[in-house]
Amino acid sequence: MMLYVGNLDYRISEEDLYELFSEYGHVTSVRIVRDRGSHRSKGFGFVEMEHDYEANRAVDNANGLIIADRKMVVRFGHQASGTRSEKRMKAPSRHSYQ
């Protein structure tokens, strides 16, 4: 299950997140979102846990933790996939015809 992790200090590494979330279960992937030009962290990322019960435990315990003087936000989420044009094509219509 994919978790969104936000309000991260820019110095936090993927290894740091891996170690932290490993306390709650098996971590299958970690990705911090970075700026394309500077490669600097944007302050959020995604952690994927192998089992739902581990993800629930991570959300219950890690959400609100103070890490490097910042209150971390952890919630259930998903990682966007596809190109921007694919996302636009999938977006529901704003118009309702009834």
Could you characterize the architecture of this molecule?
Keywords: RNA-binding. Pfam families: RRM_1. This is RRM domain-containing protein. InterPro entries: Nucleotide-bd_a/b_plait_sf, RBD_domain_sf, RRM_dom, SLIRP/GR-RBP-like. The N and C termini lie far apart (37 Å). The chain has three helices and six strands, in the order βαββαβββα. The C terminus is likely disordered. It is globular and about 35 Å long. The strands form two sheets. Strands 2-3-1-6 form a four-stranded antiparallel beta sheet. A two-stranded antiparallel ribbon has the order 4-5. The protein has a domain of 39 residues. It has 98 residues and is an alpha+beta fold.
Q: How is the largest sheet built, in terms of strand order? A: 2-3-1-6
**Low-confidence spans:** 82-98
For the sheet with most strands, the description reads:
4 strands, antiparallel
- Which value, in Å, is the CA radius of gyration? 16 Å
Mean pLDDT: 86
Beta-strand residue fraction: 25-35%
What is the tally of helical segments?
3
Shape: globular
Question: First CA to last CA: what distance?
Answer: 37 Å
Looking at how many chains there are and whether they match, the oligomeric state comes to single chain
